[in-house]
Each structure stands twice: as structure tokens, then as C-alpha cells.
Amino acid sequence: MNRTRCNEMNSYLNIDHISITFPTDNGPLNVLKDVKLEVKQGEFISLIGHSGCGKSTVLNIIAGLLNATEGGVILEGKEVTEPGPDRAVVFQHHSLMPWLSVYDNVRLAVDQLFKKTKSKQERKVLLMDEPFGALDSLTRTHMQDSLMEIQARLNNTVIMITHDVDEAVLLSDRIVMMSNGPSATIGEILDIDLPRPRDRLTLAENPTYNHYRAEVVKFLHERHTQPGVPASNDDNESDGEEPALSLVAG
Ligand SMILES: Nc1ncnc2c1ncn2[C@@H]1O[C@H](COP(=O)(O)OP(=O)(O)OP(=O)(O)O)[C@@H](O)[C@H]1O
Ligand SMILES: [Mg+2]
Asked: Does ligand 1 have an atom closer than 6 angstroms to the CB of 55?
């Protein structure tokens, strides 16, 4: 299928109406339905949504590790059909080097992500699945600041899954909020119009920052509370699992 159409050439990364259905013992499970998003080069997107809605599935389709049942992903005018060196992935819940501390693992992964490959080709798109989810808050703060600095320097396009509302607002140009599954899709997109470089201490008292934060909390806790789970005030839905990271150098 040739998805290189003229009207799509303007968007750098085009997630073009993807749906995916998995076969299961209980019959077909439609996990994603008509997910569409056009991403600009150098944009930082956070993907946020309740556990199990399909965030990792979206990321794996962009990575070329899963094929959508309908629709597809177009990067710089070419359809993504397999993993490639233009996309670096930090997986959820994997340990890159089990003997290293969590901090060292994340540091290593981020260093790897931003390092030039041997061919001097920089990775263009960084796909990160809850990369800092298991870190203590001070280390996490440090990693977020490093990520912002590096991204400002290299202008990589980033799609990051997070459960942390403050992290999403601090880092993102846009926060993409997914509805609950099955048949999950993009519920709302919030533009984060805050100047860069961003400083967390200054932003903590910034009414615009706090407005954005409240919008995401409202989406997650009022409009899209997980079925069967009462709304809570806990923004960070980390499951407390062992920290972990893995890196595929595509
Ligand atoms: N290969 C597969 N076969 C069947 N079902 C799958 C498969 N992969 C994912 N799923 C189901 O798709 C849904 C979405 O899974 P996914 O891992 O993308 O969610 P998630 O939003 O990343 O969740 P979390 O926040 O817990 O990481 C889940 O119900 C999961 O069980
Ligand atoms: Mg996931």
C-alpha cells in the first residue's frame, strides 16, 4: 500500500487512522480504534491514559514492532513497516543492565538514545514507554531536566508515555490523552503553550501551568475514570513494579 500522499507530506510523523485487533481466547479484541495524530519534527508529545488502554500498543506500532490492522504510520513520507535506525525505543519494564542501579540504567538508555550512531545518523524519533516511572522523585527530576536539555540541543521528535501529570506538562508541546479501552482512541489533545527553557520551580506558581495540570487531572479522574476503579487524587499511578528499561538500537 502506498501511503505517500501529497497532503501527508507536511506532517513529519503521521499516525494515520490506526486500529488494531488482537486474536484472544475470548475472540478478537479491538484495542485501538481510529487513532490519528500528526506530529511535527522536533515536537515533544506525551501520551497519557489509564493502564491497559493501549499506550504501549500505539508506541509499538510507531516503532514498527506491531502492524496495525487498519491504517498505518508514515515517517517522512514513508510507511513504517519494521523497526529502523531512525526510531529509538525505550521499552516499559525491561532492564537494560540488571546489575546497574535504576539511575544508571536510565542514564545509560538516555545516553544511548542521543548518541550518534556509527554512521553519524542521529536517531530522529525517540519512543519512550514510561522511561522514568520507577525512579525516586529527585532522580526523576534530574532525568527530566537532562532530557529537556538534550532535546533542546538535538531537536529530536519525542513520543513519551507517562502516568505522571507534572512530567507530561513540564516536558511536552502537546499532551495526547487516550480514552479507555477496548477500542481506545485519542480523547483530547492539550497544547502546552509554555515558553522554553522551562523551569519547574518557576512553573509551580504559574497559573497557566496549573491550568494545564488541572485539565489533564480532570480528563483522567472525572471524564475517563477507569471502569470499576473509583476516582482517586493520586496522579502518579505507578504500579510499584521493579524499575526497568531496555533499549533497542534499531
Ligand atoms: N499481543 C496481544 N494480544 C492480545 N491482547 C493484547 C496484546 N497486546 C496488548 N494486548 C491488550 O491490549 C490492551 C492494551 O495494552 P497496552 O499494553 O498497550 O496498554 P497500556 O496503555 O500500555 O497499559 P499500561 O499503562 O498498563 O502500560 C490490554 O488490554 C492488553 O491486554
Ligand atoms: Mg504500557
From this structure: yes
- Give 153 Cα–ligand 2 centroid separation in angstroms: 28
- Once rounded to an integer, what is the mean pLDDT over residues 217-238? 61
Average pLDDT rounded to a whole number, residues 119-142 = 80
32 CB within 6 A, ligand 1: no
In this structure, which residue's CA is closest to atom 29 in ligand 1?
52
Q: What is the mean pLDDT of the chain?
A: 82
**Closest Cα to residue 181, out of 85, 35, 65, 54?**
54
DSSP state of 115: S
C-alpha atoms less than 13 angstroms from C-alpha of 125 in its C-beta half-sphere: 25
Residue 143 binned pLDDT confidence (cut-offs 50, 70, 90): confident
Ligand 1 mutation target, pool 26, 30, 31, 179, most atoms within 8 A of CB: 31
Instruction: Report the residue among 29, 91, 178 best suited for mutation to probe ligand 1: largest number of ligand atoms under 8 A from its CB.
Output: 29
Note the pLDDT tens digit of each residue in 54-94.
999 999 999 999 999 999 999 999 999 999 888 888 877 65
Cα end-to-end span (Å), the chain: 23
Could you tell me the pTM of the whole model? 0.84
CB 195 within 8 A of CB 189: no
Q: How far apart are CA 231 and CA 223, in angstroms?
A: 10
Delineate the domains of the chain, giving CATH numbers in brackets. 40-65+80-248 (3.40.50.300)
Cβ of 241 below 6 Å from ligand 1? no
Is 90 exceeded by the pLDDT of residue 225? Answer: no
